[in-house]
Model the fold of this input.
Amino acid sequence: MSSKGKPEQIYVWRPDDLTGIELRRGVAVKEPYPRHWHDEYQFCFIQSGGGELFYRGTHHNTPQQSMFVVHPRSEERRVG
Done:
């Protein structure tokens, strides 16, 4: 749970007519996630807050109001 009391939520949308694409929207996401990968492209928009992503061997800042794409089968993890 975030410091403002909002529960952490991640919404995932996979359009039926666009295979291989995943859209994500997170609310109050604070927890780090272990290394993992997806079979789809992910289009991620950081609406508020921010963080860091470890992607393809490099740490990337993900500030608020930023958008990034994660390619299929690329190892990633969210750093707290």
